[in-house]
Each structure stands twice: as structure tokens, then as C-alpha cells.
Amino acid sequence: MIRAIYPGSFDPVTLGHLDIIKRASQTVNELIVGVLNNGGKSPMFTVEERVEILKEVTKDLPNVKIMAFSGLLADFAKETESKFIVRGLRAISDFDYELQMAQTNRKLNPNMDTMFLATSLDYSYLSSSTVKEVASFDGDISEFVPEIVVEKVREKVRERKLQKKNG
Ligand code: PNS
Would 54 be classed as within a structural domain? Predict the structure, then answer.
């Protein structure tokens, strides 16, 4: 039984994330998508919302499980008896940070390894931050995120603008 974790903020999940989820789920018996619940950041979507969205967009992938986690990824891997961490690499600029994280995680939990998947060319420019940036200026994000996420992001942008206006 080989179990892996694909961890991230997923704020929001993009088509690039979904592509990695689909490909990684074909290489292991079970893939846990670990949604980081990090109190320090101020995400667009709550962790519960991100988990719900991910459940919806992966509902046709039977060996994919969505779980929130907080604290260290190395500990979450121990708790869930996961052998691998999966990360997507978009460009060389991702590499320094990802290598440092993989090596730190292996120091913390020597029983696990990080597996890197090269992001598909179609999505190598894509990130959750750029999706939010484009949406904040009412740009079209339909080529960046799953269909159900488009309206959810627009709603959040509207809410934020209203909040700002009303102080
Ligand atoms: O999608 P992201 O935001 O690039 O994902 C980053 C994530 C969640 C993989 C990373 O921040 C993480 O693992 N956070 C949990 C705390 C931890 O274990 N940090 C790594 C020690 S170097």
C-alpha cells in the first residue's frame, strides 16, 4: 500500500494543481491532498471551503482523499503513514525552495521522500496568487481554475470590495 500526500495551500485550487493530482493519483494506491490550515496567513478561502472545493473537483478520482492539516508536514506524513510527498515543479525558480523543503522534511522524518512532477507546459505559468490578482481586477480566470471555482473566486472578490468600501 503506497500512500502519498500532495500538500499545499490551494487558495484556490488551480487547473495546474488538478493536473498534478490526477497524474500523482495514478502512481500511488492512495493520494491524500493535504490542505494547509495555517493561522498565520489570511487566505481568500477558509480551510473548510478549500477542502469542500477540492472534494468536489476530485469526486471522480476514487483513490484521492482530501484532508486539512496544521503543523509540520513531516508529522502529518507520519500520522497518515504516507511514504511520499508530491510537489509540482513549474520552473527552475521553484527549485531552491522545493529542494530546501524536501531536505528539511527528510531530516524531520527520514521515512519519507519527496517526489517531484514536472508541471504540464499548459500550466507552468499558473499560480493561485496570479489567479487572485487577475480576479481582483475582474479579469477572466476561466482558463486557470476548475469551472466551479470561477464563480466562487468572483464572489470572494465582490465580498472583499464591499468590505473595503464599507470600511
Ligand atoms: O502551495 P504552497 O503554499 O506552496 O504549499 C506549501 C506547503 C503547504 C507545502 C508548506 O508550506 C508546508 O508544508 N507547510 C507546513 C509546515 C512545514 O512542514 N513546513 C516545512 C518545513 S521546511
Answer: yes
